[in-house]
Amino acid sequence: MDDGAYVVVNGECPTCALVRPLLGSLPVVVVDEDTESGLETSFGWGVDTVPTLVRIAGGVEVERHVGWLREEWRAFFGDPGLGAELPEYRPGCGARAVEPLVEARLRGRTLRSRRVELASEEDEIEAMFDRGWSDGLPVVPPTPERVARMLSGTVRSPDEVVAVVPPDLVECTVEKVAVNAVLAGCKPEYLPVVLACVEAACTAEFNAHGLLATTYFSSPVVVVNGPVARRIGMNWGLNALGQGNRANATIGRALQLVIRNVGGGRPGEVDRATLGNPGKYTFCFAEDEEGSPWEPLAGGGASAVTLFAGDGVRGVVDQLSREPESLARSLALALLAVAHPKLVVAFDAMLVVSPEHARVFRDAGWSKDRLRSELLALTTRPGSELVQGAGGIAEGLPAGFEGAQLPKFREDGLLIVHAGGGAGMFSAVIGGWVNGETGSMPVTREVGG
Question: Could you tell me the domains of the chain?
């Protein structure tokens, strides 16, 4: 922009109409938001109110005044008699460049992602299926305007690299995450949670590449903690692990689409699951912290996501236990079935305790650590029951473990979460994939802005 004085106006603003008769006799360039070029300039300068006076010197802005204030305009133009016939002050009006739809259209022009042009008669939903952008369900067309609106949900720069996404190890920017969040059906306020999910998934500890390549069932399970869950309307109550909540459904789906569309993790290619599980579309829920007798999974009170490599949900029914010892034994029996009752230590698990079951432990004063310790003890078994051939089952451990006492889970391998509706004495077990260097470890990341 050349050096000089500029004034941004539009035709719908009464204050702009008030000052327009002055502009023809002043050394000022009129930037009119009623034109497309004027809108672009107003947007680029970050003008939120018209009229706005701007002075450019040396290629940079050095002065700005908003609205009509007679003394400011006189000083700006060095004219002590300017606007003598006008009121001393009139506030400005909202600029068109910051109207949501207009701003999204203008911001969309700044995006760096590759544009894909569709033929005029091409069905955009079918086109996205044909191009392999979908997980098998319809996706939302990621128009520049929609992606721009999605980016309004974060303060992070669109070109910031969030992570290197496996399996193809492609750098993924905030903008690319936003594109896939649009495809998934997210709202802009979900984007910071999706970004945290992508960051967690692309760590060496979580090992998304290995999780894709395994023939096992598992996929990312996302648990959200902290104030953000309430702020964006997530579900931690009735049907928390099921359908019907937009945030739960689309946050997990956006993560899966990033891995698919950016990282190249597609079923039948790198994704080699023998059976898979429905959670590979999306598996995301919030923890019920307010109703919980225990500290949250992520701890600390901050908004955070925890990713766990889990498979399907196994229901645990115990409607009779009113003592914690009895209920813990029921839960332990269900946990023994993770992967296989004769396979131990290698697999983690997540236990989702419902409010009615949690009440039994709350009333007895059991902490989460106490429950975990009891479950780890109750799931420790003699090697004689676990070795190959024991019980007439070929599956099992090598014979050398026959004399040992073996825990089902490693000490940090049992995650306990509180969620679900207030009625029904049911909890759930979500089995995990193998842990350690060759498998996946749970990863927590704070949700930023």
Answer: 4-97 (3.40.30.10), 144-446 (no CATH)
